[in-house]
Amino acid sequence: MRQLLRNAAVGAMTIALAAALAACGEAGGGDDDDTNGGEPNEGGGTIGLLLPEDATTRYESFDRPFIEAKIEELCGDCEVQYANAGEDTNTQGQQFEAMLTAGVDVIILDPVDASATSSWVENAAAEGVPVVAYDRLAEGPIDAYVSYDNVRVGELQGETLLSALGDEAEGARVVMINGSPTDPNAAMFKDGAHSVLHETAEVVFEQDITGWDSAIANEEMNAAIESLGDDGFDGVYVANDGMAAGVITALSSAGITDVPVGGQDAELAALQRIVAGQQTFTIYKALREEAETAAEMAIRLLRGDALNDLAPETVDSATDQGVPARLLTPVAVTVDNIADTVIADEFYTVDDICTDDYAEACAAAGLT
Question: Are 78 and 102 in contact (CB under 8 A)?
């Protein structure tokens, strides 16, 4: 029916045809019907899934399969149209428009650049297509949002870094390598971390990293070392694990091995660095729960059902207020609780983490 309504806008003949189909019952008899002509709140439909990048293994290995599997479970007649933007905002905008043109009924969107999405989402709303913002709060009239409490992520990063510093936390000098300035999550991580660190420590060098680029993070860490000296800081806050790799490379090249470094995302390489003592902690966000919540939100919006328990909170974006939301709880991961978090949840297995290069370190950590 949504496709018929779009086509109706091109002329009176199409309007008449849509009315005739509705009168004959071929369109299901109402504006809430699905694209397959079933009864309202029943049957299948098409859900667009737009993810932001494929440079890491996260989206293809976890988010996408979790979302698609949950949609299949909840709606066996539903179809998923998938596209990955490869970290390119213009590409994602074209993918979004292509999905609208193809007649999808709902879109799940994890934006490359949340500040670029307002007109996209407005176009979707004009065509009656609900949009679920996934992981990042896209701008525009979003219908639902699921992510983690990203301020809490930053707080955990700050708390865990101070904990790693122990008795030396008071007055400690901290370098902050923040995420991309176009990512609203990065701003919340930073705010949360600052709220904790400023109570105890001093931030002596800070830089936002466009595009979360590990190579740029490496350059900025080198700049911090050059500016402060190799003994001019006591700990390094890094907004995610990908950039932590670049930071740790810079520290290692300078012969600095005794400074705690934190990240976020619980990437496999980061967990291996934690086991090996190169990285101090990461932040684990159970992606299955987040992905399955997004899938269920999309199905409910497809069927015209209330979100209720799925979105018990509201959040505000730069363009809209009161977006129905669910914010999940993150967990800090160190070498002491890897087994009780990512391994217990089967996010990664011991075999995944404890490859030959890390066998000795895993044994010392009690993982094998």
Answer: no
